[in-house]
Amino acid sequence: MSYHIFGHFGSRLSYATVASNVARGLRKRGFLAGVTNLDDKVIEEHEDLMAGSDKGTHAILIVDPSNWLFDAAASAYGAANVAVFASPNTDSLLAERAEVCSKAAMVLAPSQWCLDTVSRSLACHALPSPTWACKVPLGVSRNYLGVFERRRPSDKIRLLHLATDFSWPGRKGTEELLQAWAMVQKELAPIAELLIHVPMAVYEAAHYAVADMSLESVRLEIAAGRGTSDAELAALYERADVVVLPARCEGFGMMMLAACVSGTPLVTTYATGQVDFLSSLDGWLGVACSERLEQLEHETGLCPVVEPRLIAQALLSACSPMVLKHLQKGAASQARFASRWCWDEVIEQWVETLEYWRNS
Questions:
Q1: What pLDDT is attached to residue 300?
Q2: Is 88 in contact with 14 (CB distance < 8 Å)?
Q3: DSSP-H helix ranges across the chain
Q4: What distance, in Å, lies between the first and last C-alpha atoms of the chain?
Q5: CB–CB of 23/52 below 8 Å?
Q6: Cα-flanking dihedrals φ and ψ of residue 263, to 5°?
Q7: Among 174, 168, 153, CA closest to 255
Q8: Cα separation, 169 vs 172, whole angstroms
Q9: In the chain, pLDDT over 70 holds for what percent of residues?
Q10: What angle do CA 76, 80, 83 make, to 5 degrees?
Q11: Residue 118 CA to chain centroid, in angstroms?
Q12: Across the chain, which distance is largest between two alpha carbons, in Å?
């Protein structure tokens, strides 16, 4: 009895990151039958997963849930043997995604936020609940371990923001962050600089936004290819004094967890999926969310509104010497025990959950 994983192995984005790490973890423990790549190409770091592919007994869909893919898997394996992963960026579910979750025998979610969102969406569309719905953790690459020990001091406080969405404005709070920076640029420009790492798809929009607001202390860097590698991201964290991720919603927030693992102080919204792990950690500063809620277009879930003035207040606090020193102390402390948040550790809970489902 073994598992066959359907996923996107032609990128380094969220689904591919989860699918590849779960596949490697299952292979190490003798449970991986094979993988099916849904992209037209495979990036080099995933090529090892393409060698040999048996059908297996159970299918795991680590992709954006769609009826056609679920129906194909159910036809080959039987619906009772198909599990669906609720995206790491699930803040709400479209009707089709809710239908897939309803039909699946097992729904795997990376946070309580995602579990609650699935339940809310099923209720909204009057769909029955799946047989099983479980929370499984996500991890980050071991490349982030030891970053805080290699970090070198600089003349200015280096703030890093990762705009990983391929839309503008995205859900990562990039547009709101730029507006916030405009509010405090006079105070922060002499002591701090902001680097924004953006996909090529949104570089032009980000460039014009920076130019229109005359943000001279903001630098843009383009993410190359089909996603930035773990080693490249770890190198960005190594150069950063503070990671700023005021995301409007995150199903889990792997880049936030990466900041914790790398020992980098974090400024982020304390909402949605990241609450699951941030609540037990130090070294981060929360951005308050507005009490207002806005509904995302075409979707059923609710997403916090992050106001630029609140981000601006958090930036000023994080860059003050006393607060920054406190954040650095907390971040360095948690980084000493960070290996427990890496993939080779968290995969154990995946194995336990999948085996319980299979044996049931």
A1: 40
A2: yes
A3: 14-28, 67-77, 95-103, 112-124, 147-150, 174-188, 200-212, 230-239, 254-262, 275-278, 308-318, 321-335, 343-359
A4: 13
A5: no
A6: 75, 30
A7: 174
A8: 8
A9: 93
A10: 85
A11: 17
A12: 62
Q: Which two tokens stand for residue 76?
A: 């080959």
Within 10 A of 123 (CB to CB), how many other CB atoms are there?
A: 12
Q: Is 348 left (phi over 0), alpha (psi -120 to 50) or beta?
A: alpha
Cβ contacts of residue 201 below 8 Å, gap of 6+?
166, 167
Phi, psi of 286 (to 5 degrees): -85, 140
Average pLDDT estimate for 335-340: 88
Confidence at residue 1, expressed as pLDDT on a 0 to 100 scale:
61
Q: Give the pLDDT confidence score for residue 92 in this predicted structure.
A: 60
Q: How far apart are CA 193 and CA 218, in angstroms?
A: 6
Q: Per this entry, what is the length of the chain? A: 360
Residue 348 has which token pair?
């154990």
Instruction: Indicate whether 88 pLDDT > 90.
Output: no
Decide which of 3.90.1150.10, 3.40.50.2000, 3.20.20.210, 3.40.50.450 is the CATH code for 3-139+343-359: 3.40.50.2000
Q: Which two tokens stand for residue 156?
A: 């200015």
**273, 110 in Cβ contact below 8 A?**
yes
| Selection from 90, 15, 65, 136 nearest residue 301 by Cα | 90
Write out the residue limits of the CATH 3.40.50.2000 domain(s) in the chain: 3-139+343-359, 142-341
Which pLDDT belongs to residue 298? Answer: 35
Structure confidence at residue 222 (pLDDT): 83
Confidence (pTM): 0.92
Q: Which residues pair with 109 in a beta bridge?
A: 135
22-81 tens-digit pLDDT: 999 999 999 999 999 999 999 999 999 998 778 889 999 999 888 999 999 999 999 999
Going by C-alpha positions, the residue among 176, 139, 161 that lies closest to residue 261 is 139
CATH number of the domain located at residue range(s) 142-341 in this protein: 3.40.50.2000
**Higher-confidence position of 299 and 316:** 316
